[in-house]
Design a protein that fits this description.
The protein has two domains: about 180 residues, Periplasmic binding protein-like II (D-Maltodextrin-Binding Protein, domain 2, 3-Layer(aba) Sandwich), CATH 3.40.190.10; about 100 residues, Periplasmic binding protein-like II (D-Maltodextrin-Binding Protein, domain 2, 3-Layer(aba) Sandwich). It contains eight helices and 14 strands. α1 runs antiparallel to α7 and α3 packs across α8. The protein is globular and about 60 Å long.
């Protein structure tokens, strides 16, 4: 199977840890003349990831090569460039985002990128330096939550599942602090996600993203509560492999998503996440249905 002929021949520059994503064109040519999927060893499949130095990607690359698939890991330092790079043909596939993030991008950009495989859900936890249980959090207590739209909605759903807030109409993946009903046990204070651990000093509890748990000197098991990765509410937060719509049935790309579920890669994924990753097995069709529902919610909000 061959990729869409909209692919462009680009070479990715080396990226420092703090640099933004940059691209350098190095030719053009007819994409139908050869490519990764058609067996051209000089043109590996370009996979956009975040944190290419993570051990799991070395394991994944080894497994792909064992299946005869050569890949080039493109380390994405700027999340905002990852989907446009894929859409414009500068990547063949990416794997860095969950369905909620993808839906927001598609709606905002008028794009139609599609999930072709699931990876994992990473539970989102509620932490406290003042209380050792949910029951200790007092009526009228204050909880800090991430203020970016994707994590804010999920944090509110976590708090509702924990019995600390009630959300208008039961809440959804696009809920905001305005949807917290007055009958809620606690109030919420949206702050920058990186500030949620710091807020532990002044609030009763904080919802803290996995990215900041270790840096805050916390362990996942310190969480007073976390969402259920197998619940319907967690479906928008399934991390996925993403391709252009015209490539969503490409056999080589689907094979890469399959390889990410090999025992070796799964073990490396769980190790990289500190044991928090919950591997998901949703089919591409299921993921695409979930994505379509989220996109409809966003458009109708």
């Amino acid at each position: 199977m061959s990729f869409s002929t909209t692919r462009k021949r680009l070479t990715w520059t080396a990226i420092a840890a703090t640099a933004a994503l940059t691209l350098t064109a190095c030719g053009g040519g007819d994409d139908t003349a050869g490519g990764a999927a058609s067996g051209d060893a000089a043109d590996p499949i370009r996979v956009g990831v975040v944190g290419a130095s993570d051990d799991k990607w070395a394991v994944f690359q080894e497994q792909a090569e064992a299946e005869g698939i050569e890949i080039e890991l493109v380390d994405l330092q700027d999340y905002t460039q990852a989907n446009p790079a894929l859409s414009q043909g500068e990547l063949d596939v990416n794997q860095f985002q969950h369905l909620q993030f993808l839906a927001g991008y598609n709606v905002d950009a008028g794009d139609d990128l599609q999930p072709i495989g699931a990876t994992a859900v990473y539970p989102l936890g509620l932490y406290s330096s003042k209380h050792t249980s949910l029951e200790e959090i007092p009526d009228g207590g204050q909880v800090a939550v991430p203020n970016d739209p994707t994590n804010l909605a999920r944090a509110l759903l976590v708090l509702q599942e924990a019995g600390l807030v009630e959300l208008k109409d039961g809440g959804s993946s696009i809920s905001t602090e305005a949807d917290v009903l007055p009958s809620s046990k606690v109030t919420v204070t949206p702050v920058d996600a990186a500030q949620t651990p710091i807020q532990l000093q002044s609030v009763d509890a904080s919802i803290i993203n996995n990215d900041f748990v270790e840096d805050a000197g916390l362990e996942p098991e310190d969480a007073l509560f976390q969402d259920d990765p197998d619940s319907d509410a967690a479906k928008p937060y399934i991390n996925v492999w993403v391709a252009r719509a015209e490539d969503k049935d490409d056999e080589t790309l689907l094979k890469l998503a399959e390889i990410s579920h090999s025992p070796e890669v799964v073990e490396a994924e769980k190790s990289a996440s500190g044991g928090t990753a919950v591997i998901k097995e949703n089919t591409p069709a299921e993921l695409q249905e979930i994505l379509a529902g989220i996109e409809d919610d966003i458009r109708n909000s």
